[in-house]
Amino acid sequence: MPTCHWCHVMAHESFEDQEVAELINTHFVSIKVDREERPDVDSVYMTVCQAFTGSGGWPLTVIMTPDQKPFFAGTYYPKQSKYGRPGLMDLLKGVANKWETNKEKLVASSDEIMEALEDQFSVLSKPGDLTKSTIKRAVTLFHNQFDVTYGGFGQAPKFPTPHHLMFLLRYYHLEKDQKVLQMVEKTLQQMYKGGIFDHIGFGFSRYSTDRMWLAPHFEKMLYDNALLTMTYLEAYQVTKNELYKKVAVRTMAYVLRELTDDEGGFYSAQDADSEGEEGKYYVFKPNEIIEVLGEEDGQYFNQYFKIMPSGNFEGKNIPNLISNEDFDMPNERIDRLTKKVLRYRIERTYLHKDDKILTSWNALMIVSFAKAYKILENERYLSAAIKAICFIEDKLINDNERILARYREGEASYLGYLEDYSFFVWALIEMYEATFDIDYLKKALKYNKEMIEYFWDDKKGGFFLYGNDGEQLIARPKELYDGAMPSGNSVAAYNLLKLARLTGEKELEELADRQLKFYISSTKEYPIGYSFYMMALLFALYPSGEIICVLKDCDDLNHLKSLVSEKFIPNKSILVKTTENEKEINSIIKTLKDYSLKDDQATYYVCENQACSSPFNDINELKRRL
Question: Is the pLDDT of residue 2 over 70?
Fold first, then answer.
């Protein structure tokens, strides 16, 4: 992980050290893996580490036999042993000695370990019925873990986990539970007020090390900013609170300024460290601000963001609004001064950028820009989404039409993983629902079909992490848990259901049902660990419907888009048939041939529970029914 602080520490301390290098090169074959490029390798050996130690994390240190079987796993190790923690030098010398004197025992140990871990790589799936009880239990657990003072769930460290909030927004929409909406809003406001949001250059850091969201782990990840943008946009659509729109717009501005390639792809991350010091790029002293802005503006800026002589982070200050009662009020003076501070900050210290372009994370950003276009009706966001899709199609799909996982410096590599496919399909669905361009629906169906072909386990259900044409590792895991990002399986469940409802294809509906039921055993104990899956479950178990719009011209389409921008309708699917796409959409969705204009005007059909209303022409009636 190029932006991981402790990965940097271990690299500088050990891997760049001559003594350590000589020891490794004498006795070992060293392999350094970027877990973002090879999530399959990371998943397998992180499972091993968690089984060995009871926890995991990065850097991940694994020692294994030549046939990939591990016999040791851990995380960060200093060069020399200290404070009761073993050092890498001692560890490597001990392993090298045992390999020379008793290799058979280590090999036998690795075989025993793999046998013992066999169950860790499989997902227990028992037959059962899908019920709302799992959803209700998840909501209860969220209530129990909610921090009423600072928002979020649990204490410290706190991760944004935006799909928790997206699930709760949908639950509120369906159940009208005001306490659930309050949890979402409190969390969104407190995250924005804290230092996890960069008030100078915008965008969110990866997580907060404290309960108040003040001191982040400073690396900024594309996927966090994509998922948080979606969440703030949806919260704006639900509440019409301008603050959430502002945060979403500023987060997208950060991505477009800092993480966007000239050809339209999105870079992965920005580092936590500058000049070997974590957070140096982001923190300030009061006098520093006064030198940049002058006495009067500097004092005002310092007071607004609580930049104090005592500091709030290692003697310096992370700008924040935690105690600012006017945090949600427009402030043109602060906006003007912030631009000056940003220019100074950029010139003051260099910040490393991880410029690899990952299909899966790019797809999440496309979802965000598609939602932004749909909700805010700003063509700039549509353009960003289209350019990113073109980038993936031009650079990250090989001659065999196989999606690839990573692009950097002119080279694309690694056969795409489940999340590359499922996230990209989700992006294409969102683009269809933002534009009603049938090409996006066609592509979503195409790549969804390929996802099933490469990753689906027809015997036991669920999708494998890597494809049947990929490099075969010592295990072929299935990941269900929704961590910092949703799992590929959870997004696949949502996609299957959404495409089934859009197209009416029975096979997709049956596969969606199998996928949803595959989760039953896993979600039983801790359903909030599967919050994106819960979004799919809400779609499956609560009333949903399809709206078929037969339109005459662009004006009709624009009126429909404006209506959709106003309404948060997660359990509705909208299909648009026009004179231009009539032949094509009828060939994809056979049942649509029976839907036509009434009285030669735009006509709407509202379908629920496999039954459709009589056609009507009044778009205000459609607005009422939504």
Answer: no
Q: Give the list of residues 6+ apart from residue 580 with CB closer than 8 angstroms, or none.
A: none
- Whole-angstrom CA distances from 369 to 15, 233, 360, 469 are 40, 10, 15, 32
Count structural domains, the chain. Answer: 4
Which residues on adjacent β-strands are paired with residue 354? 269
Structure tokens at 153: 């769930």
**8 A C-beta contact, residue 622 and residue 548:** no
Beta strands in 191-268 (DSSP E): 207-208, 216-217, 220-221
Q: Is 125 helix (H, G, I), strand (E, B) or coil?
A: coil
Q: Which of 119, 144, 165 is the last residue of a domain?
A: 119
Mind listing the pLDDT tens digit for each residue in 33-48? 887 888 878 887 787 7
Same domain, 365 and 489: yes
Q: Which two tokens stand for residue 35?
A: 């877990």
Residue in this structure with the two tokens 């072909």, named with its chain if needed: 453
Q: Give the chain's length.
A: 626
Which conformational region is residue 233 in: left (phi greater than 0), alpha (psi within -120 to 50 degrees), or beta?
Answer: alpha
Is the residue at 124 inside a domain? Answer: no
d(CA 380, CA 509): 35
* Concatenated DSSP letters of 373-436: HHHH--HHHHHHHHHHHHHHHHHSB-TTS-BEEEEETTEEEEE--HHHHHHHHHHHHHHHHHH-
Residue 497 in domain: yes
DSSP 266: B
Identify the CA nearest to 519 among candidates 474, 554, 488. Answer: 488
Q: Are residues 560 and 471 in the same domain?
A: no
Contact 522, 530 (CB under 8 A): yes
pLDDT tens column, 386-405:
999 999 999 999 999 999 99
Contact call for residues 212 and 150 (beta carbons, < 8 A)? yes
8 Å CB contact between 103 and 109: no
| 404-408, strands of its sheet edge to edge | 357-358, 404-408, 411-415
Same domain (yes/no): 149, 242: yes
Closest CA relative to residue 274, chosen from 339, 222, 347, 334: 347
pLDDT (mean) for 517-527: 93
